[in-house]
Protein: Cytochrome c biogenesis heme-transporting ATPase CcmA
Organism: Simiduia curdlanivorans
Amino acid sequence: MLELRDFSCERDNRLLFAGLHASFAAGEIWHIEGPNGVGKTSLLRQLTGISREFGGELLWQGRPIGECRYDFACALLYIGHQPGIKTALTARENLMAYCPESTSAQIEQALTDIGLYGFEDVGCYRLSAGQLRRVALARLALSTQPLWILDEPFTALDTQAVAALEQRFVAHAAAGGCVIITTHQKPSIDALKVLALGDYQPEVRFV
Ligand SMILES: Nc1ncnc2c1ncn2[C@@H]1O[C@H](COP(=O)(O)OP(=O)(O)OP(=O)(O)O)[C@@H](O)[C@H]1O
């Protein structure tokens, strides 16, 4: 789906990474790995098109991203490190805003599946950090986009929710999707692909 060729990132005249080659294909789950400040979020922002400053090439289905931004945007679901939830609204209202094409029954089911039964109509300002993260992640159940890019999706989740989320990634990949995440926890996912960012020596390995 998405390909990097000789990719690099510079911030404030500091080279974070360079010479990165990677190909994110249908059916794959990728973990972008590395210590604090190495450039994981910066890379995700480049991959999503939020940041257009990069060296090298970024291709979507074989085409330079600059030539197919609309197609790419339609195929992408990005959830950043901040949950992106409007706290003045309820969980249900947030999902209705994010997924206007979903039916009320689908939204109800997504909220139940993610463990928010009974909290659907509570103002999000009254939810815990983990519940807020669940509201954001409920979008995954309603997503029709093949490419998911998620920055630290496990943050604030309990162990049961982490396991359920990993299963959702596996199901999405099995259905032909592609998932790219950052996390400081090691995911328990078979055939996980790892892109490790390090000082000037990016390394791609498979586990
Ligand atoms: N808006 C910004 N302007 C300038 N430099 C920035 C900006 N945001 C981040 N940086 C710098 O870019 C570097 C990489 O930041 P980034 O957030 O991509 O790292 P990260 O690997 O995701 O870190 P963490 O694991 O702590 O989330 C850091 O040194 C940071 O200071």
The chain has six helices and ten strands. The beta strands are 2-11, 14-24, 29-33, 55-60, 63-64, 76-79, 147-151, 178-182, 193-196, 203-206. The mean pLDDT is 93.
